[in-house]
Write a structure and sequence with these properties.
Length: about 260
């Protein structure tokens, strides 16, 4: 049996928005009881069934790279940004500034070197064409801490349109959830379907010719771009298959995520 192919998804956002809790929930289907501090980057791995329930179904590993959000190290974390097959932009629903800063995070990743190319009050005008189509990076926007909103505000968030948001500008789906509730991403829910659809897009971009439907030859085994090497094919009994800590050569101070 051949080794299982994999893709890398960056999970980024301001310090404290809940990235670590989110990646744990996605990878393990259960909440993280005691979230800690992310030093540099932490990686969770999820087993995903591409096009589940169809003749095209195939198994992939999705690496979720939870990048520490400390602003003091924005010029050094670019080491984690290559390669990038998909991006999850995370913001705190109780902190509007964290949502506004998603443009800066996106610019930082696309700039590849991790440097903040926006200065002062400058804003980024995102060209939707840059993110749409089979050759562009798939993006998903996730708002966390839905449980911390009062009922009226929560309903307003759930019923709002995405007009003018970064999700709309990038042609991306948006999810709002409580990372401490396992049912937030339970199979069959709207948010679970959006997440699966996003992972399918990431896999298609890397491995599939969308015109012919044929799978490209895997080339993601080099330890130069993947410090963990390749995952061997083996029996897997759960959706989450492990987590790793990957630190920059120049240690970063801790950042809550």
């Amino acid at each position: 049996m051949a080794a299982i192919d994999k893709v890398r998804v960056l999970v980024v956002g301001d310090s404290g928005v809940g990235k670590t809790s989110l990646t744990h929930l996605i990878a393990n289907n259960e909440p993280l009881t005691s979230p800690g501090w992310t030093v540099g980057c932490s990686v969770e791995v999820r087993l995903h069934e591409y096009k589940e329930g169809t003749p095209s179904q195939n198994t992939f590993f999705v690496e979720l790279w939870d990048v520490g959000g400390s602003i003091s190290h924005k010029n050094t974390r670019g080491v984690f940004y290559n390669p990038t097959h998909g991006i999850i932009l995370v913001h705190d629903l109780t902190n509007r500034k964290s949502q506004e800063n998603l443009q800066r995070w996106l610019t930082e990743i696309l700039n590849k070197d991790g440097k903040d190319v926006l200065k002062g009050t400058d804003t980024l005008e995102i060209d939707p064409e840059q993110f749409l189509g089979s050759t562009q990076i798939p993006i998903l926007v996730i708002g966390t801490k839905l449980d911390m909103l009062d009922d009226g505000h929560k309903q307003k968030i759930l019923n709002r349109t995405s007009a003018g948001s970064i999700a709309e500008q990038c042609g991306a789906d948006e999810i709002c959830l409580n990372c401490h509730e396992a049912r937030s991403l339970a199979a069959g829910t709207t948010d679970s379907v959006k997440l699966a659809r996003f992972f399918d897009k990431v896999i298609e971009r890397k491995y599939y010719n969308r015109d012919s439907g044929r799978k490209y030859t895997s080339n993601y085994t080099s330890t130069a771009t993947n410090p963990f090497g390749s995952f061997p094919a083996q029996p897997i009994s759960s959706q989450g298959v492990g987590s790793f800590n990957y630190l920059n050569a120049n240690p970063m101070s801790e950042s809550l995520s």
